[in-house]
Amino acid sequence: MTSVPEVEGTKTAEPTRTDPAREVGLTPSEAERVRALVGREPNALEWGMFGAMWSEHCAYKHSKKLLRSLPTKGARVALGPGENAGAVDLGDGLLCVFKIESHNHPSAVEPFQGAATGVGGILRDVFAMGARPVALLNALAFGPPSDPRTRRLVAGVVGGIGSYGNCVGIPDVAGHVSFEPCFADNPLVNAMCVGFVQAGGLARAATARPGSAVYLVGSDTGRDGIAGASLLASFELGAEDEAKRPSVQVGSPFLEKLLMEATLELIARDAVEATSDLGAAGLTCATSEVAAKSGVGMRIDVDRVPRRAAGMIPYEVMLSESQERMLVVARPGREREVEDVFRRWELHGTRIGEVTPEPVLEVRAGTEVVASLVPSWLADDAPEYDVTEWAKEPAPARGWKVAEPPATNKIGVELLELLASPMVASRRILYRTYDQMVGTDTVVGPGGDAGILRIKGRTDGIAVAVDAQPRVAAIDPFVGAAAAVAEATRNLVCMGAKPLAITDCLNLGNPERPEGAWQLERTIAGIAAASEALGTPVVSGNVSLYNATRGRDPLGGSRDPLGGSKDIWPTATIGAVGHLTDVSRHIPVTSGRAGDIVLLAGSAHVGIGASAYGALIGVHEGPVAFDLALEARLQRFVLAAHERGLVRAAHDRAEGGLGVALAELCLREGIGMKVTLPAVRGIDKRVALFGEGPSGVVLVVDAAHAARVRALADEHEVPTWTLGQIGGDLLEVAPVLGTPVAALRDAYDHGLPRALGREG
Amino acid sequence: MRFVATIHVRPKAEVRDPQGEAILGALGSLGLGVVAVRTGKEIVVTFEADDDAAARTAADVMGRELLANPVIEDFRVELATA
Amino acid sequence: MRFVATIHVRPKAEVRDPQGEAILGALGSLGLGVVAVRTGKEIVVTFEADDDAAARTAADVMGRELLANPVIEDFRVELATA
Amino acid sequence: MVRVAILRFPGTWSERDFEHALSLVGADTEILWHTEVDLSGFDAAIVPGGFSYGDHVRAGAIARLSPATTELKRFAADGGPVLGSCNGFQILCEAGLLPGALIRNSGLEYISDWVRIRCEDAGTPFTEGLKDAVLRMPIGHGEGCFVADPATLERIEKEGLVLFRYVDGRGIVTGDANPNGSVNNIAGLRNEAGNVVGLMPHPERCAEPILGGTDGLRMLESLVRAVGTMPALVR
Ligand SMILES: Nc1ncnc2c1ncn2[C@@H]1O[C@H](COP(=O)(O)OP(=O)(O)O)[C@@H](O)[C@H]1O
Ligand SMILES: [Mg+2]
Q1: How far is the C-alpha of A416 from the C-alpha of A667, rounded, in Å?
Q2: Is A57 marked active-site?
Q3: Among residues A398, A478, D84, D179, which one has the fewest Cβ atoms lying within 10 Å of its Cβ?
Q4: Is the separation of the CB atoms in A124 and A326 below 8 Å?
């Protein structure tokens, strides 16, 4: 599928002689560090390679130090952070490989392609390890849905995700969407991929040996995205967006599918000794990382790289971020076989060089050496900044309140408003455009608390979920991040799955500012605390910094000092993977049966300060708090109850509080219930109904089991409240409301299409 | 007056065109000596405008605001009276 | 000789054009007096042929065999030397 | 044992799903790469779903030019049972094995959902005993809107080539039951001889209770039964 280069395209200028280091994005002290390592003045290409590899996106300069504090070990962890993706052991030799990745800035510039190529990138991370992708998830955040820009972004991002995943044929099984003013200019697009591989078939980047042939396979290399992701994701979006626009990359999911099949076949045949995808910083990153991790060198000839444009210089070839490419190191003597597999899958694979014993990455253009650097300088020696040195908690006046709750509204009307609000309403119009069933492993798709996948030929299965809590994190990044970990894992528990491990995507503002540094530190601390408490180590992740609006209030007013601030709310997106020993025995997505008992387990201490209801009535304030020990006991209790077959249905209390959780239970099968609110001293009935707080699970149990369930909760030191009974066609919360399930349905189903202006 | 604008939308020269790549491969199998393929869209819009100048302005607005994605595409307008 | 054929593919008049309908709706909201929209594709093929006649035949084959589906589409070839 | 060939074009993605589903009815399957398709010795051929050649040009258009399609036409002309689902249906239409064409969904979006279809004819190897049955099946497509020129449509209807129509829960053809704007709610067709069948829904995605339904299994069971009783000449 190669073409004679037809276009010239826009030439990307190499850095000039005046100040090459600055032009590639390095600070003066970083430039000094480069010169000290290299021991001479690097040439323009070498500066470019350092600029890309030492960018925030590739080098994690501001986060690496803190990330070391995350718990990454556990009995079930097969592979922690450091490779393309992490893995947990499901037993009997099967590993589950997963990772999350952000594509925020590319999606802000070009929503469809930005989101599509984000999916492409995370798929490659998983299949580069030899794992066959079985599921995709995504977490998105946008501005207010009434804003025409948001509508364009939603259409583009969702369209791009769907077009890519559908074409490659990987089902989307779960996700998360936030709508908050702070994301209006800077949407979040986080994509997660989950795959399976037999333990013996795991491929690594760290296993290249001297003498082996190095192949580049997949798309031809073009001028698209020269140092695009590496630089674009490493600074704030600003006036220079326009200038950066030529760097938009267009994905080809069709080519990705062929590349995936070919890569998996090569790894299954054991014909390759190392693989890596080409993502940010393209060939520079793939060659230097494989060489550095393997402790070897590499000699490559850029003249052998198939091009899509005429007249490309080595700088462009080494830094192009053209999509759908992989670096493959063949086992000695297997080169013919590797080439045959490429050919059979109708792919263009070219031998571009070989692995060398001395640790030098030598880039040639024909016979001329155009760059010669030690791989670890590029891959490992970027500076690490300790953001805690300048981190500063902002002044505490971060809450705001516009009005007291308007007491005139009927609570029933408020419940419908909340159900129809973009924060709560059904996301079906979005996920309906993603294939959910291809692969025939989807037992529960989007719409449940978590997605569930069976594993053909085995009785066990996995549950997957992805969550974020930006509104809580805006008040307290530690609690927000911990709450996201808790929510993602609690969602697994609500399907009867035992949480095994998590992957995290940190979406934050500028770490060079004191508040941004503080948010980064607190966010990572929150993830660390929660993953420790809940026994779910971090096996992979991604950091996206410099997410900020252009410094104006997206709503045009000054009412909301948080939404109007420059940085986005600090948002940790957490992807969680759990295990079901018998996938057919998951907790089903059902309303329960007439006569079943409805219980609340965990905590009834809720507030509206950081809730969806609060957002509706103009309140956003602290304090927020979290009892992680209670959360851990709650999760263990629900799993214990399920193990004993005592749980008919379960649903976690999330956005919209208990009222929405109960309504959503009714909506599953269109059955009503009659309940009362838990009596907690000092909590008003509106707060009890709509307030939010961690550690709440609504359980539906057979009346005959209710006493045993409560006893089991007592054993686990988990408080429970008996709320009432399933039955009828009203959601009756005595004495405050009685709403027909049909009315709940209308609000919940049509809320989002109406908010996005797609329905009248 | 009634006008017909044909608005031709093409990916910018430096932007990759996966559809063109796929067609190139397919036409290759027909053995027709094909060396390069680029694909585009054309949108034929029939509309009312006061005069030629107004029609051209309107067609440009359509291209810019809706039909072409300025980040990755260029467009060109062909205008005729209906 | 090297030729460039632009092959224009349009849905037949009696076939629905959902994309055109959607654009009509969207352009309506721009208030530009739009009354009808049809969408088509254009494929620009660079290829080698011995002479003009051979080039025209080749371009017709491309249109007929791949680029247009005669059940729902018509096509038209514009030919030029490169 | 019934031997079923499953064709794989570049970009096909339901081939392994069909392989698994057919194993549940005891069929022996082989996945064949499109340049290496020889259907002699097979009892039936499946053209699965996916995005062959990325759906570029039109869904199924480039696959039509593959050697596999030539062999498929030969097999079909000899009376061999052929089932095309989703992209497979699109390929069969592009190849002229079934009439009409499939264009972009009227809502322009890809749709992944469950639909109901009513079977109108039991005279194909894939629908024995299913006449008037209402089947619940998943769909997953962006270009499933069936169209045909008026003369062709009239012929399709008159000759009873409509095999499946989108219907509501009561088995009635309604606008709301039609997910993609297909003319006359057409979800699937057969050819005149009845051995070639195409449909947009995915029978292989509903062949086990754990996936939410088993109506697809009924079509695959029909195939196994039908092949067992087919004249030896065809087999
Ligand atoms: N927030 C995080 N938590 C844990 N691990 C992380 C985090 N961010 C990145 N990592 C790990 O660091 C490594 C490099 O990440 P990244 O550069 O995003 O991978 P890639 O180059 O494959 O895109 C990966 O192993 C990733 O899992
Ligand atoms: Mg990677």
Answers
A1: 13
A2: yes
A3: A398
A4: yes
* CA dihedral of A70, A73, A78, A79, whole degrees rounded to 10: 30
Q: Which of A751, A580, A759 is nearest to A667 (CA)?
A: A751
Q: Which residues line ligand 1 (CB under 6 A)?
A: A 67, 70, 81-84, 86, 99, 101, 125, 279, 504, 506, 538, 540-543
Residues A219 and A346 sit within 8 Å (Cβ to Cβ): no
**Touching subunits for chain A (3+ Cβ pairs under 8 A):** B, D
The pLDDT of residue A551 is: 47
Measuring CA to CA, which residue among A650, A664, A209 is closest to residue A419? A664
pTM exceeding the 0.90 threshold for the entire prediction: yes
Catalytic: which of A103, A105, A176, A620? A103
Q: Which residues contact A607 (CB under 8 A, 6 or more apart)?
A: A624, A687, A691, A692, A693
* Residue with CA closest to ligand 1 atom 20: A84
Residue B23 contacts D where some CB pair is shorter than 8 Å? yes
Atom of ligand 1 nearest to the CA of A505: 1
Tens of pLDDT, residue by residue, chain D (235 residues): 899 999 999 999 999 999 999 999 999 999 999 999 999 999 999 999 999 999 999 999 999 999 999 999 999 999 999 999 999 999 999 999 999 999 999 999 999 999 999 999 999 999 999 999 999 999 999 999 999 999 999 999 999 999 999 999 999 999 999 999 999 999 999 999 999 999 999 999 999 999 999 999 999 999 999 998 765 444 4
Low-confidence ranges of chain A (pLDDT < 50): 1-10, 239-246, 402, 551-565
φ and ψ of B19, to 5 deg: -65, -45
Q: Which two tokens stand for residue A501?
A: 């491990």
Picking from D187, D149, B11, the residue whose alpha carbon sits closest to that of residue C11 is D149
DSSP D173: -
CB A474 within 8 A of CB A398: yes
Report d(CA A383, CA A451) in Å as an integer: 40
CA angle in degrees (0–180, nearest 5) for A18-A24-A29:
80
C-alpha–C-alpha distance, residues A225 and A222, integer Å = 8
The residue whose two tokens read 């004993």 is: A644
Res A246: pLDDT: 45
pLDDT of residue D230: 67
What local confidence, expressed as pLDDT, does residue B30 receive?
Answer: 84
Q: Counting one residue from A and one from B, how many pairs have CB atoms under 8 Å apart?
A: 62
**Amino acid identity, residue D146?**
F
What is the Cα–Cα distance from C13 to C20, expressed in whole angstroms?
12
B7 sits in which H/E element: strand B2-11
Handedness of CA C45, C50, C52, C54 (dihedral sign): negative
In sequence order, which residues have a C-beta less than 8 Å from that of residue A681 and are 6 or more positions away?
A: none
Segment D114-133, tens digit of pLDDT = 999 999 999 999 999 999 99
DSSP assignment of A473-527? HHH-HHHHHHHHHHHHHHHHHTTTPEEEEEEEEEE---TTSHHHHHHHHHHHHHH
pLDDT in tens, D180-215: 999 999 999 999 999 999 999 999 999 999 999 999
**B71 Cβ neighbours under 8 A, 6+ residues apart:** A109, A110, A245, A248
CA distances from C34 to B2, B6, B62, D95 (A): 9, 13, 10, 37
The pLDDT value recorded for residue A235 is 57
Q: What would the 3-class secondary structure string for A6-40 be?
A: CECCCCCCCCCCCCHHHHCCCCHHHHHHHHHHHCC
Tokens of A569: 């709310």
Alpha-carbon distance A125 to A98, whole Å? 9
Minimal CA–CA distance to B38: which of C39, A3, A220, D58?
Answer: A3
Three-class SS state of A96? strand
Helix (H) or strand (E) holding A175, with range, is strand A172-179
